Amino acid sequence: MATTVVMVHGIRTSATMWRAQVHHLEDRGVTAVALDLPGHGTRMAEEFTLDGALATIDAAVRDAAARDRVLLVGHSMGGLLSIAYAGSEDRPPIDAFIAASCTAIPRGLALQTYRTLARGFDRLPGRGAPIAEWVLDRTLPPETRADFGAGGYAYDAQDTALRSLSVLDLLAALRRIEVPTWFINGQFDQLRVNEGLFTSLVPDAELIVVPRTSHLVTAMRPRVFNALLDLALARMDAEAERAPSVS
Q1: Which of 133, 165, 199, 227 is the most buried (most CB within 10 A)?
Q2: Of 89-93, 95-99, 191-195, highest mean pLDDT
Q3: How far is CA 163 from CA 6, 92, 106, 107, in A?
């Protein structure tokens, strides 16, 4: 059986952030599906809701699972949403899971501080975009720089999305994840604070920290991240070979 990789973007970005991964997987003959969540990318005009975001992930996963094994991959907000989805009580049909740059519980003072900073940037000229673009120009390689923001930035959805994340019961969800799981963080990612806890709660989980990388691990070191996708796919293939055949 083949594998489909379903990828969920982070806050403010869109499906275009995954183009380096999509191209890599397609070169390998692996089907890749990069989603746009409500309020982001091609769905910028829609309102972001938690139910709508989880429904978007579920629809893509179930469509892929009708044909293939499924590797679910989420980054940042997309990773947190994917944790909630992968650990939902109805046991969604995924076979492996990668959660990147999302090992922090989005509650309390840390979340409030992030929301306050985001609102402050919104009040700057151009909603702080010139500063963000300056940083991205100096941190992302040419192979991902243009793609990262090609779908636009969902400024209007940001605060609603951040507020929505606070209701997720991530610890309960993590305990219910029963598939091979990789938590991937950049060395300098500010969301590494609970990485040990997250990894300990998933029975078949591994933590991988990518050196010299920030929160944007998928875009800053795309070839390393692509190699980690290959690792997950190899594990899935090996497990499929070991599984007893059904006559």
Answers
A1: 165
A2: 95-99
A3: 25, 25, 9, 9
Give the separation between CA 28 and CA 69, rounded to whole angstroms.
16
CA dist 82 and 76 (Å) reads: 10
The CATH T-level fold of domain 3-240 is: Rossmann fold (3.40.50)
pLDDT tens per residue across span 17-70? 999 999 999 999 999 999 999 999 999 999 999 999 999 999 999 999 999 999
Domain locations along the chain? 3-240
> CA 33 to CA 18: how far, in whole Å?
9
Give the Cβ contact number of residue 230 at 10 Å: 14
What is the Cα–Cα distance from 137 to 129, expressed in whole angstroms? 12
User: Is 226:21 a contact under the CB 8 Å cutoff?
Assistant: yes
